[in-house]
Amino acid sequence: WSDSTDSIISTESADESGCRSSPIRVVLMGARGVGKSAIASIFAGAVDSMDCDECEGYAGEVCERTITVDGEEAMVTLLDTWDSEDEGGGSQDQCIQTGDAYLLVYSITDRSSFLRASEMRISLRQQHPAQNTPIILVGNKCDLVRCREVSTTEGRACAAVFDCKFIETSAAMQHNIWPAFHGIVQQLRLRRDTKEN
Ligand code: GDP
Ligand code: MG
After folding, report:
1. Residues within 5 Å of ion ligand 2, judged at the Cβ atom
2. Are the CB atoms for 155 and 168 separated by under 8 Å?
């Protein structure tokens, strides 16, 4: 269970507040079936994230909300459009270009999804050559211990090679989902702070 859920203060978009700086656009990338929509539905505040045949039931593929990270609010727009871009003939490259930050999701129970994540990391590097684009490699489904195909050590090593952060999550157990979003916001702030100085 995520112990940082209590730090979420506002769930609605902050339209009455004057400070409407542009939201952080976070893109969910990853092979089909790794749990992107399950993660998005937790972000969106769906109560039972594991009615997952109904994962499509959360409010669309784009969700915007305000989260509080280190006592400061951040507007985050989460885009779960990766698979539909693929289907609709839309370009995933475009999806890559619109993001400020990326959650690169694989399933720890599916090695091919881990390999796909590496490929996506390479596309990201090609299109965002800046070193400091916030990217977190997310090993989801860590509740499925008996089906594990990718070890934590491998995941961490891959993240080190690809110069990004690493976290293992379980959308099913709502484990480490919020820390992943908080990590993205923290990375972006760090980047902005270094830019300003
Ligand atoms: P997507 O294609 O990446 O959007 O994946 P979905 O979110 O639709 O999830 C695919 C399947 O994996 C669904 O049946 C989910 O219930 C299941 N799933 C997603 N996350 C987890 C998780 O953390 N643990 C387990 N056990 N199942 C999960
Ligand atoms: Mg999906």
Report:
1. 36-37
2. yes
